[in-house]
Amino acid sequence: MPLLLRSPAPRVVSLSSSMHEPGKISFDALQSAKDYSAVAAYGQSKLATLMFAVQLDARMKAQGLPLISAAAHRGIARTELMNNRPAGQPVLQAILHLIEWIMGQSAADGTLPVLRAATDPAVKGGTYFGPAKWAESKGPPVPASSTASAQDKDAHARLWQASVQLTGVDRPEG
Questions:
Q1: pLDDT tens digits, residue range 105-117?
Q2: How far apart are CA 14 and CA 28, in angstroms?
């Protein structure tokens, strides 16, 4: 944090996903130690990441620090992610590949929302970027939509406190 704050325009960008939408923060099972579901854990982690980005920005502003925290998602980007899923369910695998090719964009284009969040001088803290077209699956980077649960300030604070308990890190040091 001290190195970031010495830069002329310090910024942190967190990578979320549109999978934050079905995500739910299970405060009693943040680490999914029992009843693990890969999809549920991924959704929870992406919702938590988005909430963390917004909360970090709010905390930096409250401390009068110049750091901007923003978030982004890449939409549906054609990467090796689908090729590296566990074996099984070949029909589901084929459907997911088809969706990826119809609604998706190149891996390079998937980086554009992240790059905008990281480099656009007009970015405001707490902003979330994603692709503009086809339910935010592809296209140029624009401010993205997020769920009401991603905007829940009480849950942000509760998640931050849970993170403090899990990591032992109380606050970013300026």
A1: 999 999 999 999 9
A2: 24
